[in-house]
Design goal:
two-stranded antiparallel sheet; elongated; 4 domains; about 350 residues; 7 strands; mainly alpha
Protein backbone atom coordinates (compact mmCIF):
# COMPACT_ATOMS: atom_id res chain seq x y z
CA UNK A 1 0.00 0.00 0.00
CA UNK A 2 0.92 3.64 -0.47
CA UNK A 3 0.33 6.58 1.86
CA UNK A 4 0.10 10.03 0.21
CA UNK A 5 1.44 13.26 1.67
CA UNK A 6 -1.74 15.19 0.78
CA UNK A 7 -5.41 14.28 0.19
CA UNK A 8 -5.37 15.48 -3.43
CA UNK A 9 -2.67 15.60 -6.09
CA UNK A 10 0.13 14.34 -3.84
CA UNK A 11 3.67 14.89 -5.04
CA UNK A 12 5.05 12.13 -2.81
CA UNK A 13 3.82 8.77 -1.58
CA UNK A 14 5.51 6.44 0.90
CA UNK A 15 5.01 2.70 0.95
CA UNK A 16 3.49 1.12 4.05
CA UNK A 17 6.52 -1.16 4.34
CA UNK A 18 8.83 1.86 4.51
CA UNK A 19 6.70 3.54 7.17
CA UNK A 20 6.52 0.35 9.22
CA UNK A 21 10.27 -0.06 8.87
CA UNK A 22 10.84 3.47 10.20
CA UNK A 23 8.37 2.91 13.06
CA UNK A 24 10.22 -0.18 14.24
CA UNK A 25 13.60 1.48 13.71
CA UNK A 26 12.54 4.50 15.75
CA UNK A 27 11.15 2.34 18.56
CA UNK A 28 14.37 0.35 18.80
CA UNK A 29 16.60 3.39 18.38
CA UNK A 30 14.65 6.52 19.45
CA UNK A 31 17.57 8.76 18.46
CA UNK A 32 16.63 8.32 14.79
CA UNK A 33 14.24 11.09 13.77
CA UNK A 34 12.43 11.59 10.46
CA UNK A 35 15.05 13.90 8.94
CA UNK A 36 18.07 11.56 9.15
CA UNK A 37 15.88 8.69 7.97
CA UNK A 38 14.74 10.70 4.96
CA UNK A 39 18.34 11.64 4.21
CA UNK A 40 19.18 7.94 4.25
CA UNK A 41 16.44 7.22 1.72
CA UNK A 42 17.72 10.02 -0.50
CA UNK A 43 21.21 8.56 -0.37
CA UNK A 44 19.92 5.10 -1.24
CA UNK A 45 17.94 6.32 -4.26
CA UNK A 46 20.58 8.82 -5.32
CA UNK A 47 18.48 11.98 -5.12
CA UNK A 48 19.35 15.28 -3.43
CA UNK A 49 17.83 15.92 -0.03
CA UNK A 50 15.50 18.88 0.54
CA UNK A 51 13.93 19.90 3.85
CA UNK A 52 10.40 19.68 2.43
CA UNK A 53 10.93 15.94 1.94
CA UNK A 54 11.15 15.50 5.73
CA UNK A 55 7.87 17.38 6.16
CA UNK A 56 6.17 15.25 3.52
CA UNK A 57 7.47 12.07 5.10
CA UNK A 58 6.26 13.28 8.50
CA UNK A 59 2.75 13.84 7.09
CA UNK A 60 2.70 10.32 5.65
CA UNK A 61 3.94 8.89 8.92
CA UNK A 62 1.23 10.73 10.88
CA UNK A 63 -1.43 9.23 8.62
CA UNK A 64 0.06 5.76 9.02
CA UNK A 65 0.17 6.03 12.83
CA UNK A 66 -3.45 7.21 12.85
CA UNK A 67 -4.50 4.23 10.76
CA UNK A 68 -2.65 1.88 13.11
CA UNK A 69 -4.37 3.43 16.13
CA UNK A 70 -7.79 3.03 14.52
CA UNK A 71 -7.05 -0.63 13.82
CA UNK A 72 -5.94 -1.17 17.43
CA UNK A 73 -9.13 0.46 18.66
CA UNK A 74 -11.31 -1.76 16.47
CA UNK A 75 -9.45 -4.87 17.64
CA UNK A 76 -9.81 -3.82 21.28
CA UNK A 77 -13.55 -3.34 20.86
CA UNK A 78 -13.95 -6.71 19.15
CA UNK A 79 -12.00 -8.52 21.89
CA UNK A 80 -13.69 -6.56 24.71
CA UNK A 81 -10.38 -5.00 25.70
CA UNK A 82 -11.91 -1.55 26.01
CA UNK A 83 -13.75 -2.23 29.26
CA UNK A 84 -12.68 -0.24 32.36
CA UNK A 85 -9.68 -1.64 34.24
CA UNK A 86 -9.02 -4.26 31.54
CA UNK A 87 -5.33 -3.45 31.36
CA UNK A 88 -4.99 -3.54 35.12
CA UNK A 89 -6.62 -6.96 35.28
CA UNK A 90 -4.48 -8.29 32.43
CA UNK A 91 -1.25 -6.39 32.96
CA UNK A 92 0.84 -9.47 33.73
CA UNK A 93 -0.23 -12.99 32.89
CA UNK A 94 2.36 -14.51 35.21
CA UNK A 95 0.97 -12.53 38.16
CA UNK A 96 -2.75 -12.74 37.45
CA UNK A 97 -2.94 -16.37 36.31
CA UNK A 98 -3.11 -18.77 39.24
CA UNK A 99 -2.24 -22.45 39.15
CA UNK A 100 -4.04 -24.98 41.28
CA UNK A 101 -2.36 -25.35 44.66
CA UNK A 102 0.25 -22.63 44.11
CA UNK A 103 1.24 -20.19 46.84
CA UNK A 104 -0.37 -16.80 46.89
CA UNK A 105 1.54 -14.15 44.99
CA UNK A 106 2.10 -10.59 46.03
CA UNK A 107 0.98 -8.10 43.44
CA UNK A 108 3.24 -5.10 43.28
CA UNK A 109 3.27 -1.74 41.58
CA UNK A 110 5.74 1.10 41.49
CA UNK A 111 4.39 4.57 40.85
CA UNK A 112 5.17 8.18 41.63
CA UNK A 113 2.76 11.04 42.14
CA UNK A 114 -0.83 10.38 43.18
CA UNK A 115 -0.06 7.16 45.02
CA UNK A 116 -3.26 7.27 47.06
CA UNK A 117 -5.38 7.01 43.91
CA UNK A 118 -3.25 4.12 42.68
CA UNK A 119 -3.64 2.23 45.97
CA UNK A 120 -7.40 2.77 45.91
CA UNK A 121 -7.61 1.38 42.37
CA UNK A 122 -5.47 -1.63 43.31
CA UNK A 123 -7.57 -2.44 46.35
CA UNK A 124 -10.75 -2.26 44.27
CA UNK A 125 -9.25 -4.44 41.53
CA UNK A 126 -7.10 -7.08 43.22
CA UNK A 127 -8.54 -7.02 46.73
CA UNK A 128 -6.32 -8.92 49.21
CA UNK A 129 -2.57 -9.38 49.50
CA UNK A 130 -1.16 -6.41 47.59
CA UNK A 131 2.30 -4.94 48.02
CA UNK A 132 2.91 -1.40 46.78
CA UNK A 133 6.38 -0.02 46.11
CA UNK A 134 7.11 3.65 46.71
CA UNK A 135 10.31 5.66 47.23
CA UNK A 136 9.10 6.63 50.71
CA UNK A 137 6.91 3.60 51.29
CA UNK A 138 7.79 3.59 54.99
CA UNK A 139 6.30 7.05 55.54
CA UNK A 140 3.50 6.43 53.06
CA UNK A 141 2.40 3.34 54.99
CA UNK A 142 2.01 5.46 58.11
CA UNK A 143 0.04 8.12 56.23
CA UNK A 144 -2.13 5.46 54.59
CA UNK A 145 -3.09 3.98 57.96
CA UNK A 146 -4.41 7.34 59.13
CA UNK A 147 -6.19 8.18 55.86
CA UNK A 148 -9.70 7.28 54.75
CA UNK A 149 -8.24 4.18 53.04
CA UNK A 150 -6.53 3.00 56.22
CA UNK A 151 -9.25 0.65 57.44
CA UNK A 152 -9.74 -0.87 53.99
CA UNK A 153 -5.98 -1.28 53.47
CA UNK A 154 -5.59 -3.06 56.81
CA UNK A 155 -8.55 -5.32 56.13
CA UNK A 156 -7.13 -6.35 52.75
CA UNK A 157 -3.58 -6.69 54.13
CA UNK A 158 -2.01 -4.01 51.96
CA UNK A 159 1.77 -3.81 52.45
CA UNK A 160 3.70 -0.61 51.84
CA UNK A 161 7.18 -1.39 50.50
CA UNK A 162 10.29 0.60 49.62
CA UNK A 163 11.88 0.24 46.18
CA UNK A 164 15.16 -1.61 46.28
CA UNK A 165 17.26 1.19 44.77
CA UNK A 166 15.85 3.89 47.06
CA UNK A 167 15.60 1.61 50.08
CA UNK A 168 19.36 1.43 50.56
CA UNK A 169 19.33 5.16 51.34
CA UNK A 170 16.99 4.58 54.30
CA UNK A 171 18.20 3.75 57.79
CA UNK A 172 18.85 0.16 58.80
CA UNK A 173 15.72 -0.17 60.92
CA UNK A 174 13.56 0.93 57.99
CA UNK A 175 15.33 -1.52 55.68
CA UNK A 176 14.69 -4.45 58.01
CA UNK A 177 10.97 -3.73 57.84
CA UNK A 178 10.35 -2.45 54.31
CA UNK A 179 13.28 -3.34 52.04
CA UNK A 180 12.35 -5.96 49.43
CA UNK A 181 15.41 -8.05 50.25
CA UNK A 182 13.82 -9.00 53.56
CA UNK A 183 10.17 -9.25 52.43
CA UNK A 184 9.02 -12.81 51.87
CA UNK A 185 7.38 -13.43 48.53
CA UNK A 186 9.03 -10.62 46.56
CA UNK A 187 11.77 -12.77 45.03
CA UNK A 188 14.02 -10.78 42.70
CA UNK A 189 11.51 -7.99 42.14
CA UNK A 190 13.01 -4.55 42.77
CA UNK A 191 9.93 -2.37 42.09
CA UNK A 192 12.04 0.00 40.01
CA UNK A 193 10.01 -0.36 36.82
CA UNK A 194 9.36 3.36 36.57
CA UNK A 195 13.00 4.27 37.09
CA UNK A 196 14.02 1.75 34.45
CA UNK A 197 11.51 3.17 32.00
CA UNK A 198 12.57 6.75 32.72
CA UNK A 199 16.16 5.79 32.02
CA UNK A 200 15.33 4.19 28.67
CA UNK A 201 13.03 7.02 27.64
CA UNK A 202 15.96 9.45 27.80
CA UNK A 203 16.87 8.19 24.34
CA UNK A 204 13.82 10.04 23.00
CA UNK A 205 15.27 13.44 23.84
CA UNK A 206 17.38 13.77 20.70
CA UNK A 207 14.42 13.22 18.37
CA UNK A 208 11.72 15.23 20.17
CA UNK A 209 13.53 18.18 21.76
CA UNK A 210 12.73 20.42 18.77
CA UNK A 211 9.49 18.67 17.78
CA UNK A 212 6.02 20.18 17.99
CA UNK A 213 3.72 19.35 20.89
CA UNK A 214 1.77 16.96 18.67
CA UNK A 215 4.82 15.04 17.48
CA UNK A 216 6.34 15.01 20.95
CA UNK A 217 3.23 13.35 22.39
CA UNK A 218 3.02 11.01 19.42
CA UNK A 219 6.57 9.76 19.92
CA UNK A 220 6.18 9.34 23.66
CA UNK A 221 2.90 7.42 23.35
CA UNK A 222 4.34 5.13 20.69
CA UNK A 223 7.41 4.47 22.82
CA UNK A 224 5.33 3.71 25.92
CA UNK A 225 3.07 1.31 24.03
CA UNK A 226 6.07 -0.45 22.55
CA UNK A 227 7.78 -0.81 25.92
CA UNK A 228 4.56 -2.04 27.49
CA UNK A 229 3.90 -4.66 24.83
CA UNK A 230 7.29 -5.96 23.77
CA UNK A 231 9.81 -5.14 26.48
CA UNK A 232 10.66 -8.50 28.04
CA UNK A 233 14.35 -8.04 28.78
CA UNK A 234 13.75 -7.37 32.47
CA UNK A 235 11.65 -10.52 32.88
CA UNK A 236 14.29 -12.57 31.09
CA UNK A 237 17.00 -10.97 33.20
CA UNK A 238 15.15 -11.88 36.40
CA UNK A 239 14.67 -15.43 35.13
CA UNK A 240 18.38 -15.84 34.35
CA UNK A 241 19.29 -14.31 37.68
CA UNK A 242 16.94 -16.71 39.47
CA UNK A 243 18.66 -19.66 37.79
CA UNK A 244 22.04 -18.35 38.93
CA UNK A 245 20.74 -17.99 42.48
CA UNK A 246 19.50 -21.58 42.48
CA UNK A 247 22.97 -22.75 41.46
CA UNK A 248 24.41 -21.27 44.67
CA UNK A 249 22.17 -23.38 46.93
CA UNK A 250 24.83 -26.10 47.50
CA UNK A 251 27.36 -23.44 48.50
CA UNK A 252 24.81 -21.94 50.90
CA UNK A 253 24.15 -25.30 52.55
CA UNK A 254 27.88 -25.90 52.88
CA UNK A 255 28.38 -22.51 54.52
CA UNK A 256 25.46 -23.15 56.89
CA UNK A 257 26.95 -26.49 57.89
CA UNK A 258 30.36 -24.89 58.43
CA UNK A 259 28.90 -22.30 60.80
CA UNK A 260 26.62 -24.80 62.58
CA UNK A 261 23.41 -23.34 61.15
CA UNK A 262 20.95 -26.21 60.96
CA UNK A 263 17.89 -24.43 59.57
CA UNK A 264 17.34 -21.44 57.28
CA UNK A 265 14.69 -20.21 59.73
CA UNK A 266 17.53 -18.88 61.86
CA UNK A 267 18.03 -16.09 59.32
CA UNK A 268 14.57 -14.79 60.13
CA UNK A 269 15.42 -14.99 63.82
CA UNK A 270 18.58 -12.97 63.26
CA UNK A 271 16.61 -10.26 61.46
CA UNK A 272 14.13 -10.16 64.32
CA UNK A 273 16.91 -9.87 66.89
CA UNK A 274 18.60 -7.10 64.90
CA UNK A 275 15.31 -5.21 64.66
CA UNK A 276 14.73 -5.51 68.41
CA UNK A 277 18.27 -4.33 69.10
CA UNK A 278 17.89 -1.27 66.87
CA UNK A 279 14.53 -0.46 68.44
CA UNK A 280 16.27 -0.51 71.81
CA UNK A 281 18.66 2.16 70.56
CA UNK A 282 15.87 4.61 69.82
CA UNK A 283 16.65 6.28 73.18
CA UNK A 284 19.93 6.51 75.07
CA UNK A 285 20.32 4.13 78.06
CA UNK A 286 19.81 5.93 81.39
CA UNK A 287 23.17 4.82 82.82
CA UNK A 288 25.11 6.08 79.78
CA UNK A 289 23.17 9.34 79.81
CA UNK A 290 23.99 9.86 83.50
CA UNK A 291 27.67 9.18 82.91
CA UNK A 292 27.84 11.66 80.03
CA UNK A 293 26.08 14.35 82.05
CA UNK A 294 28.48 13.80 84.98
CA UNK A 295 31.48 14.00 82.66
CA UNK A 296 30.17 17.23 81.13
CA UNK A 297 29.76 18.76 84.58
CA UNK A 298 33.39 17.88 85.40
CA UNK A 299 34.51 19.56 82.18
CA UNK A 300 32.50 22.68 83.05
CA UNK A 301 33.92 22.71 86.60
CA UNK A 302 37.50 22.62 85.33
CA UNK A 303 36.74 25.41 82.90
CA UNK A 304 35.31 27.66 85.64
CA UNK A 305 38.22 26.89 88.01
CA UNK A 306 40.70 27.92 85.32
CA UNK A 307 38.83 31.19 84.77
CA UNK A 308 38.81 31.98 88.51
CA UNK A 309 42.53 31.26 88.78
CA UNK A 310 43.28 33.58 85.86
CA UNK A 311 41.26 36.41 87.39
CA UNK A 312 42.85 35.96 90.84
CA UNK A 313 46.32 36.32 89.32
CA UNK A 314 45.56 39.94 88.41
CA UNK A 315 45.00 42.92 90.72
CA UNK A 316 44.24 46.59 90.27
CA UNK A 317 46.23 49.50 91.80
CA UNK A 318 44.96 53.04 91.94
CA UNK A 319 47.87 55.43 91.50
CA UNK A 320 47.39 58.92 92.99
CA UNK A 321 48.37 61.73 90.67
CA UNK A 322 50.87 64.47 91.58
CA UNK A 323 48.93 67.00 93.74
CA UNK A 324 50.88 69.91 92.18
CA UNK A 325 49.60 69.11 88.70
CA UNK A 326 46.16 67.92 89.53
CA UNK A 327 43.69 68.52 92.31
CA UNK A 328 41.95 65.21 91.83
CA UNK A 329 43.60 61.83 92.00
CA UNK A 330 44.12 59.81 88.84
CA UNK A 331 41.87 56.84 89.26
CA UNK A 332 42.83 55.11 86.04
CA UNK A 333 43.19 51.38 86.78
CA UNK A 334 46.55 49.81 86.18
CA UNK A 335 46.67 46.06 85.77
CA UNK A 336 49.77 44.47 87.24
CA UNK A 337 50.83 40.90 87.70
CA UNK A 338 52.61 39.32 90.66
CA UNK A 339 56.34 38.92 90.24
Amino acid sequence: GLVPCSPSWPSLVITVCTLEFYRNLHLQCPHVATQPFMKTLCNIFGIPFHSYLSKQFSICYNIYIQVCEEVKHCVAMALKWDVPMWRLHNACSACTYKLEGEDKLIFEINRHGRVGKVVEALLDTFSRGIGGGYDIGCKFGTMLNTSRLGEEARRLHYTALVNLFHGHAHNQLCQLTNLLTYVKGMGLEDLEGCERFFSKSNALVASIRHASVFHRKQNIVEFIQHMDSFETSQSLSNYRQALEVLKTEPALKEAMSKHSVSDSAVFVTWLKEEREYLLGLSSEPFEETLQMEYYQKLVNLKKYNDEVAAISAEWVVLVESNPQTSKSPDTRPIRMRHA
